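Hello again,

I reread your note about wanting to compare the complex against the isolated chains. To keep things tidy I'm splitting this into two emails, and this first one only covers the full assembly. Below are the input lines as submitted, including protein chains and any nucleic acid or small-molecule components. They are followed by the predicted structure of everything together. The single-chain runs will come separately.
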Amino acid sequence: DIQMTQSPSSLSASVGDRVTITCRASENIRSYLNWYQQMPGKAPRLLIYGASTLQTGVPSRFFGSGSGTEFTLTIGSLQPEDFATYHCQQTYNTPPFTHTFGQGTKLEIK
Amino acid sequence: QMQLLESGPRLVKPSETLSLVCAISGASVKTYDWSWIRQPAGRGLEWIGRLYSSGNTNYNPSLRGRVAMSVDSSKNQFSLKLNSVTAADTAVYYCARAGELLWFGELISAFDIWGQGTLVTVSS
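Full-complex prediction:
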């Protein structure tokens, strides 16, 4: 099975900072990688699919990149509403067609 | 606007079966693929399984043998059954649409619509 590993598991930053979260896959998943944002007590929200395509309505300060086994999510200038937990998820379209998530990265205000 | 709403018992005894339903409004359950995803307190998300519009299913290998998902078209909903539960199955359970999004000429699957989630506790 494909395993997903995010780093760091938590991160402290200030409003206006630029931050980067990394997600690594245990095998090549091309660009079949999605990112989600989860506010406390809420359901996750799709941010980015296909490693780099922003879902409708997502601000352009969010940037996804990578392919193969290493991916990054960058937030260009943190806003107060960005402090949340971020999850990566592989969706590689080959058997066994599983949808593994990373363990999440909690972004906190410094 | 499509909305999903989970329902079912909030407390399940060990060794019994957890049963949840996801009611869909704003779309037909027969049109899309659907998934269940869970999240233990303070931990990451775990994909449970996918129910295809064809009626086929695919489950997380770690849960295979204990899990079953099915559609009830007459009620426009789909369900999750997880048997032989233990305390390790205590989590917030989410239902979600497994959308197929157009991406550079291909379709890529992503969970683009989610229910609000429901906490299920396994305890005697």
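For quick reference: Chain B has a mean pLDDT of 96.

B.
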